[in-house]
């Protein structure tokens, strides 16, 4: 078994475990922010897997794809964060309930 094969196996196992954990948060995330963070982590994991493939194979052909994916992640996160901040969807509840009742 060559060193490249061992690297492929280790990288594959780590990627699969990471994706399974991310999918559980993406599906079960109680808030929109949890799902947004999970999708960002999923995109980052995809970029890391592409980078690992690039290092193990010894080429640089997928760098433009990695840049496009990173830009997509930044723009998507910014758009959703602006939407959430305007909608106030995940505003924390005030401790102690309503302050109007004295």
UniProtKB/TrEMBL annotation:
Membrane-related topology note: Multi-pass membrane protein
Highest taxon above the source species: Bacteria
Spans through the membrane: 6-24, 36-56, 62-84
Molecular functions per Gene Ontology: sodium:proton antiporter activity
GO cellular component entries: plasma membrane
Key words, A-Z: Cell membrane, Membrane, Transmembrane, Transmembrane helix, Transport
Secretion signal span: none
Subcellular location(s) per record: Cell membrane
Coarse class of the protein's main subcellular location: membrane
Protein family per UniProt: Belongs to the CPA3 antiporters (TC 2.A.63) subunit F family.
PANTHER family for the chain: NA(+)/H(+) ANTIPORTER SUBUNIT F1, NA(+)_H(+) ANTIPORTER SUBUNIT F
Name under which the protein is recorded: Multicomponent Na+:H+ antiporter subunit F
Source organism of this protein record: Microcella frigidaquae
């Amino acid at each position: 078994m060559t060193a490249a094969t061992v690297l492929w196996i280790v990288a594959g196992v780590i990627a699969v475990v990471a994706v399974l954990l991310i999918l559980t948060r993406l599906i079960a995330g109680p808030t929109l922010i949890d799902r947004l963070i999970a999708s960002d982590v999923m995109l980052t994991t995809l970029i890391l897997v592409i980078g690992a493939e690039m290092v193990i194979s010894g080429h640089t052909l997928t760098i433009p794809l990695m840049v496009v994916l990173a830009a997509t992640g930044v723009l998507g996160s910014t758009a959703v964060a602006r939407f959430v901040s305007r909608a106030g969807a995940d505003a924390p509840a005030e401790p102690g309930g309503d302050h109007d009742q004295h």
